[in-house]
Amino acid sequence: MALTVRHWAAAALLGCAAVAVAFLPPEIESPPRPPFTARAEPGAARQIGTSVRRDLQALLLLQRRDAALALLRATRPSGPGIAMLVDPSLRDPRQHGGVAPQVRALAAVLDSAATMLAPFDTGVRLAVMATHDTDYSAPHVGGWVGLRGPVDLFPDAIDGRTCVVMIPLGSRTTRTRLSVAHVLGPCGFYAAFGKPGADIARWLATASYHSAGAADWRKERPRDAYDLADALRYMSPSQAWLGIGYAGLTLDGAACAAGEVARCRPLTQDPPQYLPPQIRDARGPLAHMAMRYWWMDDEQSWYLADLIRAMGRERFARFWISPLPRDSAFESAFGVSMDEWTHRWLVDRRPSVRVGSAIRLSSGLLGVLLAVLCVGGGAYYTTRRQIG
To answer: Is the pTM of the predicted complex or chain greater than 0.85?
Structure first.
């Protein structure tokens, strides 16, 4: 039987239809709910060990806080600028040789940040203390007890007018980035704009100060690509793999970037799921501290710095010190709702995020090309075949 043009056209259409069907999104079915099973209570030894580890961590923070207070009392105010403090323990010969270059690098970072924080008339003084970390574990349950990253002590934890950043150096497990953004953190905003309004402060504390984790608004920052290997260091493999599809954003962040503005609120309201919980039911100075970690450099930690860069210092200052509720303060200062600006910010930072079922033009063209190649290959084979 000879194949006519009509047969080839029908075969091509059939191939295209097969490709289109292959790209149809699957039906979404609600997954069955797993039966509820009560989680077994940990044993007495583990409960006691966990409490001991938590108390040792709290004691460490309070000891370093007292060391910072002692250094502040011994340091004469030198006028506007950033006060650099060096923990006496770092002058120990066993410690000094390994951290001296880091101390010098830290001093250079603070010098470069001075112009960004000027004019220093906000009523909040900034002090940065270089200190040492620890490598010991709590009994029974193990688990590290130490700093591991910068710790911010806000004015209510010090003397009411000083924000202190403790920078741990010298430990084999410490990964402190000596850059302006990662050294200053939330205290950089306190130094540049003063104490935040009551509701702004409440929002920052609820979200573990994550939106203020990076404090550097001097110039545009490049868009960074999602690094799977880096994400695997603090996420589960499934979480890290899911992040590839959403450019490193959470599900709420991806939905917000894709235009679901209602999903923008959890992104700014809640701390990241992978963030270790702070000491619960903290009282006194512990209630006014925030720990930062070496792996917290993601888009959300740059939120307030990018807001300053986009809107300017004057408008941000009105938002920061506003006595209004957070959402009202944001809209009053910037003329746009917080959720809407968050959406625009993510679109600018992650323009390629896609949510839901969709066929890209390049995928459709590739499917048509494959269909044409299949039909053409079949036609060539048929015409070359000899019928005996």
So the answer is: no
